């Protein structure tokens, strides 16, 4: 009988190089991954993530509901009281399992590519589904320099709103981003000083944008944002730092500790320091949407009869390409070999088919420990050689999202290029 639960698999904790290399040779550079579920104690799950509703609080009610699923992750969560492997994906090989982090540690450049391994010594990015019933607090993620003060890494991120996981809007499909031009640091300072006097009014200083399925945003560190209630696919840097600048959301209190958790302890009551964590120029940018909004763009040379490949995350942050993402769609019965420039994490969001002959399908519902056939990691060598996708359905498209690490797609479009390159 086939193994259906990750708990049925033998856990291998070290020396996985031989297992990995044999599997890559057999699959053309692919590793099958098990789902990695993440709870948040301060948020309300949106219930579109395909996790069985009986398992929403599988970590315990005290840990909060599960509203995230992480993809091809070697990054652990920063949750208080977290499980030891929380946030880490397990590779599934036969009757054994081991973390993708362990595989990368043991195999290095074989998995992530020579340039990424040389510069970072790890797989430095991950992506996730983020699914909430309503808005979350206006917050920012620290820059590399700021996060280093507490021994962490900074966190730029991106958003894409996949239609397949957004059958409903939930409570608030609008996101506040940045601050209105003309806002002063003194305005924000007053909001922080009013933390315990009711709603501190931080979103009175911001502009909300209506969220649109099939589009996205690129969010640099230091930029305030209060994500709305569409489920997002979020390629981002491998870090879990943040600071919440809003003290009440839908009547729920946000503790001061979530504002300062990734700031030096000596600065936890230093309001000027906290205000200066914000990238002021980016927050009050009068052309904020022009500089951060994304729409899909066809991938040159990667579209053919019956299939389309589109950039869904692109652009640079302070001159650096830190991550990119593509969406591949195959019509019923179509088979295509797709070549890429670097390693990637992949999730199938619609349909059924094969990837290099292996099962590939988007599940209807998933139990907490259940294995799936919708997620894979592809090595750089496998991506460059080409991965063959086949849609075995006679009625439904096969749709896959894949995200990439830093500086591997020099041909990716620049911010704003969608205005000239629409389907």
Care to describe what's here?
This protein has 423 residues and is α+β, with helices and mostly antiparallel strands. Helices cover 16% and strands 27% of the residues. The chain has eleven helices and 29 strands. The chain has helices spanning 17-27, 100-107, 109-112, 114-120, 144-148, 185-193, 257-260, 271-276, 280-283, 288-292, 380-385, and strands at residues 10-11, 30-33, 36-40, 65-71, 90-93, 96-99, 125-130, 139-140, 157-160, 174-177, 207-210, 216-219, 225-226, 232-233, 236-237, 243-244, 248-249, 252-253, 293-294, 297-298, 307-313, 324-330, 335-338, 344-350, 352-355, 358-361, 375-378, 387-391, 398-404. The strands form seven sheets. Strands 1-6-5-2-27-24-29-22-21-20 form a ten-stranded mixed sheet. A hairpin with a 2-residue loop joins strand 5 and strand 6 (96-99). The radius of gyration is 21 Å and the shape is globular. The mean pLDDT is 97.
Fraction of helical residues: 10-25%
Helix and strand content put the structural class at alpha+beta
**C-alpha Rg (nearest Å):** 21 Å
| Tally of helical segments | 11
Total strands: the figure is 29
Nearest-integer average pLDDT? 97
- Work out the strand percent: 25-35%
Task: Summarize the biggest pleated sheet.
Answer: 10 strands, mixed
Shape: globular
Main sheet strand line-up: 1-6-5-2-27-24-29-22-21-20
Would you identify the regions where 5 or more consecutive residues have pLDDT less than 50? none
Distance between the termini: 46 Å
